[in-house]
Structures are given as structure tokens and as C-alpha cells.
Design brief:
This protein has one domain: Maltoporin, Chain A (Beta Barrel), CATH 2.40.170. The protein contains no helices and 21 strands. The chain has an 18-stranded antiparallel beta barrel.
């Protein structure tokens, strides 16, 4: 259907339902001697409304409007079957923007209740409620030169309240298309972190960036630079200067096999250790293979190492295996998707600490009507 705003504007409403059943042998991701298993059922309605043309990139002949808006609402009803405990988790995302041949402006709002005992099998460091709003502005000075900028507010709330914080983050960069296969850039990122209980951190980064696409099947992106981080509070630390960087690769190995890999190092303020700074090194890869037009499988592995400024160290390897079925051979048009999965994660704190292992097996069905 169409709806009038600055000319005819396409509008699409998508409604879906995602039930999931899984068993985990460590619902709280506790030390192995205290591990408790649980069977969990999750039911997630999916409501998505798109107005206009929210595709990435500059305007094309196929777009009807410069303006666009998107709304995604995916609440999850989560039930622990043995205990009868029920909880509703909210996730909302909205965006409005304007896209022309030379510029893009958008405003985004994201609210996400991320909990550990969910189907995502997340790390303890990702266990929090997020409220994020951001404004983005991209401008092409020439067909080969683009300015990118973004300002983000982020509020993080932790269940026990010991590491609640607010963050202001600014980004700015200039990109140049050097050749048909190579894009180069330079930029900066700065942030201010304030903890509810007092104290805080601020940082600045100077970065070089590049994207390389030697063939239609291979895409590599990288960013590297230096970070200057300062601390405030009752026990301030000296300024910390350290390198930061990330590399990502996507490769279409065959018509049926897709491979991706990533490598990252950077600094983060801990959720688990009340805001203590840790340096994280992570490496991961994923392989997706289509056995037929409808059946597919994937395998992913990741290894994370964290060095805390409290002298503690921990490692967190994880793996995930998936066997999936999609109703339509076209992945973007499939109305129903079914996945059987197994995943494993381990948190090992070095020293006199017991490891925490978490294995999980489940089935997830996604149906759009």
C-alpha cells in the first residue's frame, strides 16, 4: 500500500511470532559446583512498521521518498517451566530519517532488556538493560568523499544496581574512495562515562579506517588507532594510553557457503566488576552452508580474553551449531524459519576461581503472517 508524505510513500507492516524452547544446564551462569539447570519457553511477538525507503545508501530510482521511518517492537514472554516463574522482557527500536543523493540524517531510539537467562546465552558482561538514543549525519562533499558523524546517549542499568552508568559518545570521520576496490578514512571517537555511585571515565580515540573489496565475493574492513583514557573518582588512576583496533571479513567462498571472521581489541568498563576497566581481545568466525534451497547449517566460535585493571584475568570461549529450515529459498522473503541449535560458553577466571560452563540446546521457530 502507499501513503502520502512528500509524494507517494510506501508503507509495510510485518507481524510475526517467534516461539522458542530450550534447556540450559546453568541458568544463572554460576560456578559449576552451583550450576542449576532449567527448561525455558519464550514467546516473542514481532511487530515491524516501515514507512518510506529505509535502505542504506544514496537515493536511487527505485525509491519513492526522501523521508523514512521504522518501528520495531519485540516483547518476549519468558517462562521457567519447572519453577513457573514468568517475566516479560521489552525491546523497542525506532528510527526516523531523511535520505538524499548527498546526505543522510537519522534519529534512533533503542530500549532493550538484556538478561543472562535468555535464549541469547549472553556473557555476564552483556547482562543489563539498555536505553540508547542517537543522531547520525552523513554528507557527501563529492561522489568520492564523505563526512560521517554520530552522537549517542547510552544508559545502562544493571540488575544489582552496582554498575549503573550513563555514556555520551561522539564520532566523526572522513572517508575517501581511493579506488574502485578501496576506501580509506580517518576519524575520532570520544566518550564520557558517569557511574551512578560516583566516579567516571573519559576517553578519546584517533583512528585510521579502510574498506577493501578486491572481488564481488570478498569484503574486508579495518580500523586501528590509539586511545587516551582518564579516570575520575575517589581513587583516580593515571591516564591510560593503549592501541585499539578491529578487523572484519566476509567471504562468499562458494554459491552455498559464506564465511565471516572478526578480530578486535579495545577497552571497556566492566558490568560485573562495578565499572573496573578491562582490556578485551576477541577473535571469532562463522561458517554458513546451504545444503539445499531450504536446509542450511552454521557453526560459529569465539574466544575472548579480558585483562582487568584490578589484576584479574578471565577467558570466555563459546561455540554455536545450528541446523535450520526456511520455507522459501529466498532468505529475505521466507515467511517461516525453524532452527535447532546447540551452544556452549565457559567463563574461566584465572586464579583460585572455579570455572562456569553453560551448555544450551533448543529449537526456535519464526513465523511471519
Amino acid at each position: 500500500m502507499t501513503w502520502g508524505l512528500a509524494g507517494d510513500v510506501a508503507a509495510q507492516l510485518s507481524v510475526g511470532l517467534q516461539p522458542e524452547l530450550f534447556y540450559t544446564d546453568n541458568i544463572k551462569y554460576a560456578a559449576n559446583s552451583a550450576a542449576v539447570g532449567a527448561t525455558v519457553f519464550e514467546l516473542t511477538p514481532i511487530i515491524r512498521l516501515d514507512i518510506g525507503d529505509p535502505q542504506e545508501g544514496v537515493m536511487s530510482a527505485g525509491k519513492l521518498s526522501k523521508y523514512y521511518a521504522g518501528l520495531l517492537y519485540v516483547p518476549t514472554v519468558r517462562q521457567l517451566l519447572e519453577e513457573g516463574e514468568q517475566k516479560i522482557l521489552q525491546h523497542f527500536f525506532g528510527e526516523v530519517g531523511r535520505l538524499t543523493d548527498i546526505s543522510r540524517i537519522s534519529l534512533r531510539l533503542d530500549y532493550d532488556e538484556r538478561i543472562l537467562a535468555s535464549s541469547d546465552n549472553t556473557s555476564l558482561e552483556d547482562n543489563y538493560t539498555l536505553l540508547e538514543s542517537s543522531g547520525l549525519f552523513d554528507y557527501h562533499f563529492t561522489p568520492k568523499t564523505m563526512l560521517h558523524s554520530r552522537v549517542t546517549y547510552r544508559g545502562i542499568t544493571v540488575e544489582d544496581g552496582t554498575a549503573d552508568r550513563t555514556l555520551w559518545i561522539g564520532e566523526a570521520g572522513l572517508e575517501w574512495v581511493a579506488t574502485a576496490k578501496t576506501t580509506l578514512g580517518m576519524g575520532t571517537e570520544w566518550g564520557v562515562i558517569d557511574f551512578t555511585g560516583g566516579g567516571g571515565q573519559s576517553y578519546q580515540q584517533a583512528l585510521m579506517m579502510s574498506r577493501w573489496k578486491p572481488t564481488a565475493k570478498l569484503n574486508v574492513s579495518a580500523r586501528a588507532g590509539m586511545e587516551w583514557r582518564e579516570f575520575t573518582g575517589t581513587a583516580p588512576h593515571d591516564m591510560k594510553i593503549s592501541p585499539v583496533g578491529a578487523v572484519a571479513m566476509q567471504w562468499l567462498a562458494t554459491e552455498k557457503t559464506r564465511i565471516s571472521a572478526r578480530l578486535r581489541t579495545g577497552n571497556e568498563a566492566s558490568v560485573v566488576q562495578q565499572g573496573a576497566l578491562f582490556r578485551e581481545y576477541s577473535i571469532g568466525a562463522e561458517v554458513v552452508h546451504d545444503f539445499s534451497d531450504q536446509w542450511y547449517g552454521s557453526g560459529a566460535a569465539q574466544f575472548v580474553r579480558r585483562n582487568f585493571n584490578t589484576s584479574q584475568r578471565e577467558t570466555e570461549p563459546s561455540t554455536r551449531l545450528v541446523l535450520g529450515y526456511r520455507e522459501s529459498p529466498d532468505r529475505t522473503m521466507s515467511q517461516m524459519n525453524v532452527e535447532l541449535y546447540f551452544q556452549w560458553r565457559q567463563r574461566q577466571r584465572h586464579g583460585n576461581f572455579e570455572a562456569a560452563d553453560r551448555s544450551q540446546i533448543g529449537i526456535q521457530v519464526t513465523k511471519f503472517f
